[in-house]
Hints:
By secondary structure, the chain is mostly helical.
Amino acid sequence: MLATSKTSSERFETRKRQCKQALDAYEAALRDGWGPAPGGRGDPAEQWYRKAADGGDADAMFNLGALLAEQGEEDQAEQWYRKAVDTGRRDG
């Protein structure tokens, strides 16, 4: 009969390797510009939602509002929700 279960040490080494791979991927993403932007306003999602919202995308307006609400920016969030509704979004 073949032993198929990993030992505790093997499981630890596997998890350690997975964590290292995740850290390497995270650091590469930061180097490639997917992390916080220098000088504030660091959320890449916020940056992309703003670009799309400024271009008239009602879904981006709504999503930007939701993101700002999560950040405690209630006044700005409400403005974007209203713009989303004015642009045609029905569930704003």
